[in-house]
Write the C-alpha cells for this entry.
Amino acid sequence: MDLGIAGKWALVGGASKGLGRGCAQALVREGVNVVIVARGAEALEATAAELRADPLRPAAAQVLAVAADITTVEGRAAVFAARKDFDIVVTNAGGPPPGDFRDWDREAWLKAVDANMLTPIELIKATVDGMAARGFGRIVNITSSAVKSPIDTLGLSNGARSGLTGFVAGVSRSALAGKGVTINNLLPGAFDTDRLQTNLKGAAAKSGQPLESVVDGRRNAIPAKRFGNSEEFGAICAFLCSVHAGYMTGQNILPDGGAYPGTY
Ligand code: NAP
C-alpha cells in the first residue's frame, strides 16, 4: 500500500534507538524526509547513517540529525532551527524511571510531567497551525499501555501520560480536525528495546529473581507470547501518518500482543 506521504517532512523525537528509531525507519522507507532527535550525538549520527544506507530508502528521502534534549526549550529551539515546518510529528522521549511513589518529590514529578506531558504539548503547539494552514498534518504521540492499564511502579508515567492523553482528547477534536490534522496516541505494550531491558533488570534486582525468569514471566503473560519489535511499531506509526488514516483522530492505539485484558 502506498501511504501517500512521500516528500513530507517528519520530526521524530527519541529516534536514535528503540521505538522512535522504528518510526523514523518506517517513515523514511515511505519516502518521508525525517529530522531525528536524541541527546547522544554519537548514537544519533550512527542511526542517521544507517537510515541513509537503508536499501529500502527512496533516494529522495533525506535524514537530518539534531542532537538535542527535546524536553528543554533550548533543545526544541535547535530542532526548529534545523527545520521550521513539519507535516508529521512523532513525539517521544525517554520514559520516567520506575520506583515507589513515596520516594518521588516535586522535582521528580515536574521532570516527568515536563518530559511526557508538556514536551509533546509544546511540539503540538509549535506545529499544528502550520499543518492546518497547509491542509495536512499528523501528530503521533508515543505514550504507553500504562495509560490504559497502569503499572504501580511506573506511577510517574501513569500520571504524566494520562495528562497528555486528556489534553489530546480535546485538542484532536478541535477545529484542527476539519483542516486535515489528526492527533493520535500510540500506546506501546512490551517492546524489546533498551528501555524494556532496563526495566526487566530493575524488576529482577528488586524481586531477587534471576533475570531469565523475570523475562520469561513477562513474555508468557502476553497472549502473543513474545515482545514486540521496533519495526512493527514503526509500521503502525507510519500508517497513522498516512493519507489513509485521515479519518482517525483522538484515538489511543494499543499494540501490546493482547496484553490488555479489557473489552474496550
Ligand atoms: P529507548 O530504547 O530507551 O530509546 C529512547 C530514545 O529516546 C533514545 O534514542 C534516547 O536517546 C532518546 N531520548 C531519551 N530522552 C530524550 C530526550 N530528553 N530528548 C531527546 N531524545 C531522548 O526507549 P523505547 O523503549 O524506545 O521507549 C520510547 C518511549 O516509549 C518511552 O517514553 C518509553 O517509556 C515508552 N514505552 C516503551 C515501552 C517498551 O516496551 N519499550 C513500553 C511502554 C512505553 P538519548 O538517550 O541519547 O537521548
